Amino acid sequence: MSYSTAASGQRSVTEATPVALCTREPRVPADRLVADMVPPPRFDSVRFDTYVPDPGRPSQSQAVAVLSAFATGLGGPHGPSARSARRWFAKKPAAPTGPRGVYLDGGYGVGKTHLLASLWHATPAPAEEKAFGTFVELTNLVGALGFQQTVETLGGHRLLCIDEFELDDPGDTVLISSLLRRLVDSGVALAATSNTLPGKLGEGRFAAADFLREIQGLAAQFRPLRIDGEDYRHRGLPEAPAPYSDDQVTRAAYATEGASLDDFPGLLDHLAKVHPSRYGALTDGVRAVCLTDVTAVPDQSTALRLVVLADRLYDREIPVLASGLPFDRLFSEEMLNGGYRKKYFRAISRLTALARDAKGLVSQ
Q: What pTM value is reported for the model?
C-alpha cells in the first residue's frame, strides 16, 4: 500500500496532533489474545492465487500446490462431536493419512507468511476453528491462560499456524513443543515457519533440520517445504527513499491524521519497558509512525526488541517516516554477521518497505 497526500489525511499544522508511542503502556487482556489469533491486516486478503511465484524458482509453485492440497485435506468432521461419532460408528479410528503439519523453510522475503496466511484462509473451517499467530504471541497466550487452559482453548481447532517459530529460546521451544504435542493428539493440524538458530550464519536446508530437531518428538508430524527465492519486497522496486530532515518528519506528523511522533532513541528506551507481546497494541489506532533522529541500535537486546516492533508495524501496514540514519545502517556489522542476522535482515527489509509506503506523507 502506498500513501498519497489525499489518502493519508494530511491537514494543516493546527488540525492534527500526533500521539507519542513513548507515552503508551498497553495492557492486553487474555480474551483479546485469543480473538487476535487471525492473519494480521497485511495478510487478511492474501490467497494462494494472489501469490506470484518467481518463474525461476519452481519450489515456490510447488509449495502452493502442496499447501492447497493440505488445506483441502483438512475438511470434513472435526472436534469432540466428530470423535464421538467415530467411536459409535467405527470399530477403531482411522489412522492419519500423512503428516499433520507442514514447515515452510526459506529465507526472508520469499513469501512464507503470505503462504501461511493463505493456508489459513483456504482451510474449510470457520474462523473460530483456526488460529494464526507468531511464536511470541503463542507463548504469551500460554503465559496468560496457563498451559492446560491453552490446550483446552486450542484443542478444538482444526488448524494452528505459527509464524516465525523462535528456535533461539530453548526454554520456550520446549514449552511450545509440549503444547503442540498435546494439540496434535487432539487432532489439530499444524503449519509453521521459523527463524534459524543462533550461530547459523547462512540460509539453507539446515533450517528445516534444526526446526525438526528442536521440536523433538513432533518431527514426524511435519513435512518440510523448501521455498527458494530472493526478497520479493525489493524485486524490481526502486530503492527506499533517503531519510528526511527532522523538520520534514515533524511537519508530516502534524499534517497526518492518526500519526505518531517520537524521538528514535527515546522510543528504543520505551520498548524496554513494554513486553514485546504488546507491541501490536502499542500501535493501536496509529496510521503512520514518524521517527526523528534515527541512530544505530546500541546493543543486541535493543535490536531484538526493534525487530519485533518492525514485524508488528509491517503486519499492520503502518508506514514509517524517519530522519537520521537510513534503515540499512541500523545494525552493526557484528550484528549482521552474528547468530541473529536473519532477524535483522528481515527487519531492514520490512522497514525499508514501510519507508517506501511513507513517501507520500511528505509534501513535495
A: 0.75
